[in-house]
Known about the structure:
This protein is mainly beta. It is built from no helices and 14 strands. The radius of gyration is 22 Å and the shape is elongated.
Amino acid sequence: CQQNKTVSINWTTATEINNDYFVLEKSNDAIIFYELAEIPGSGNSNHSNFYSFIDEESISETTYYRLKQVDFDGATSYYQIESSNCYSTNFNVQQLMLNGNALNFIIHTNKKEKITIYLYDYKGRKISNTSQFIINGSNSIEINNIDISAGMYVMSIVGEQHTYTTKLIKN
């Protein structure tokens, strides 16, 4: 996403053989796609080619994009679906406390979503993870029975729409 809420879609090919064109497809649900643009290919090429398209009509929610490559003979290949979300939502974590073997905090958000809370040690080893749903408003989170010693840790919250990472220190 760019500041003006447009989405820049970029891709690169290492080589191309009989590449007629690309079709950039768009979807609001990652199921039903429609053609957004047709971009000419480079035919036959043994060097990298960079392609770009700006979607001027991004919507406020998550948008999905898919790239279809079409050969001169009509054969097609689809590539991985990618998503973009230009909608800014409020998501913040407050009152983060690591006391004993319990982690407590409050998430304020204006979106409901499933989140997974990960705790890593200073070497990046996963100590724990737990998933739960949060709703619009304030969500009090408590994770008990975390068996950790004194030291530095990293907590990462990964949601369907938001991510948050912070350092924690247990004395």
